Amino acid sequence: MYGIEFKSTAIKDLKAISNRDVKRILEKIMLLETGLIADVKKLTNFTPEYRLRVGNYRVLFEIEDNKIIIYRIRHRKHAYQ
């Protein structure tokens, strides 16, 4: 089991996304509480270390102890810049 923490940049990112997409993104993030079972990939040479794919959006996060820290939620065109 993981706890989930949102950084202020991730909350700001969510406010700029349509409500329909925000709902889908938050549903996928809540699935992460039980484990990394969704479309999660460990990134190489990039910080934060993990990404969750939700349609055209990428949730960039790290894992510290039993906590998932979400740093950014960006459109795929802008996620890795």
Number of strands: 5
Q: Class, according to the CATH hierarchy? A: Alpha Beta
Q: Which stretches are low in confidence, meaning pLDDT under 50 for 5 or more residues running?
A: none
Helix content: 25-40%
Task: Give structural notes.
By secondary structure, the chain is of the alpha+beta class. The protein has one domain (3-75): RelE-like (YaeB-like fold), CATH 3.30.2310.20. 26% of the residues lie in helices and 36% in strands. It has helices at residues 8-15, 19-31; strands at 3-6, 40-42, 50-54, 57-64, 67-75. A five-stranded mixed sheet has the order 1-5-4-3-2. The chain is globular and about 30 Å long. 20% of the residues are buried. The model has no long low-confidence stretch (mean pLDDT 94).
Give structural attributes:
81 residues, YaeB-like fold, 5-stranded mixed beta sheet
